[in-house]
């Protein structure tokens, strides 16, 4: 049987989002914009071509995105695209051996308006 779905491990996207609200010991509070959450966060590595998730880790919401970067990469990627929460990831000691092109969004705030720009 021919494999019809080819995962392109060379290009990945890194994402994170607040996923759950409740009352568990592992949860911590975090602020997103002007709103506070008591929740967990999902850190996700996604194949850029197919959109399939290849890695996932969950942490307390107050854990910064950049600390989970190493857990989302598999070592075969050649291009990494991420939001501004991963800014500076390529300079971290544990990620210096990754030979990939990084595209990380900048977070720009002007006159009360905030936006991410690639």
Question: Overview of this structure, please?
Answer:
This protein has about 120 residues and is mostly beta strands. It has a single domain, classed as Nucleotidyltransferase, domain 5 (2-Layer Sandwich). Strands 1, 2, 3, 4, 5 and 6 form a six-stranded mixed beta sheet that branches. A hairpin with a 2-residue loop joins strand 2 and strand 3. The radius of gyration is 16 Å and the shape is globular. The N terminus is likely disordered.
Summary of the model, kept short:
With 118 residues, the chain is mainly β. It has one helix at residues 69-72, and strands at 11-21, 28-32, 35-47, 53-60, 79-82, 101-104, 106-110, 113-117.
Approximately what portion of the residues adopt beta-strand conformation? over 45%
CATH class: Alpha Beta
Q: What is the count of distinct domains?
A: 1
Low-confidence residue ranges: 1-7
What's the pLDDT, averaged over the residues? Answer: 76
N-to-C SSE series?
EEEEHEEEE
Rg: 16 Å
The DSSP helix count reads: 1
* CATH topology annotation: Nucleotidyltransferase, domain 5
| Percent helix range | under 10%
Count of beta strands:
8
CATH architecture descriptor text: 2-Layer Sandwich
> Which structural class best describes the helix and strand composition?
mainly beta
Largest sheet: 6 strands, mixed
What is the approximate shape? globular
Distance between the termini: 40 Å
Describe the structure using short key phrases:
118 residues; mainly beta; Nucleotidyltransferase, domain 5; 6-stranded mixed beta sheet; 47% strand; disordered N terminus
